[in-house]
């Protein structure tokens, strides 16, 4: 039976989660999972729509052999990838952007694994409010329930290659940052290609950063304690925002967290060539993202896209988190080296056996919990 598409598992849970504190997050002793904007019904590996058979509570383990492309993949990561593969998604190059947005995501796979492993989410430790910042741009604002205002503030940009995904897809990461750092998190919903080509997402990202600086008081936040953060395309956006702030004489963020960022436009790096079949992201998928967001190949040379070739002097201290089986692995390390060469303090961490998108999966992937811990420590130190 073909896979049936409707509202995603994460979207089905999102409204009651926000209302009742069931959002999947990471707090003191309990790890995190994610939400999604893909539109899929629950399904097992046969695509029948039945819920997968549960295992012992808290146990996360794969059921098959390691994928050929991931001989050293960690067991918990492999289990999530198996769930992702059970969705039978079509490769991105075979789809339009509209069709791709209807497919379930790696975040859905993590949520599905959470159900299989009978892992429940901890109570929500932050309040949320969705607000329109300007025409076409909104944000979900996460505010700590505890602590004392004014809070530090983190402007967070989600991934999805500037084409797919939303703040719903990456809500677990934004929530974890809020709960673990004690900061307000402004998760930005920027416009995407191909409807809105480069540099729209970048301009939206910078405008949202400026909005946050100007409206910090209304957010119970301190405008002198602002960081930027993002994953994948969002990691690239976060760094580009720092570049634009520097060049436009706008106050720089105090810190930047870049999680497997898109930091270049070359698809011939060692990690691109080594990751042509990886899931959930591979070389073909990245080429599809570039095709849908960039107006022409020349846009790929713009320093806001090609960060590894940009002037990086004067940027804020940075944490870069890399995934192992990821076409973006090489450029993440390259960006770390280039930042250090430009005099920027950098903490680079590569998590062996992980794939792209692992950061928000702390409920089921131990390395994600470790990575969130590193990010939290670095952000709290910078924003104290």
Automatic annotation (TrEMBL):
It holds the Pfam family Abhydrolase_3. Residues 154-359 form the Alpha/beta hydrolase fold-3 domain. PROSITE patterns: PROKAR_LIPOPROTEIN. Residues 1-19 form the signal peptide. Residues 29-68 are annotated as: Disordered. InterPro entries: AB_hydrolase_3 (IPR013094), AB_hydrolase_fold (IPR029058), GDXG_lipolytic_enzyme (IPR050300). Keywords: Hydrolase, Signal. The keyword Signal applies. The keyword Nucleus does not apply. GO terms for molecular function: hydrolase activity. This is Alpha/beta hydrolase. It comes from Hymenobacter ginsengisoli.
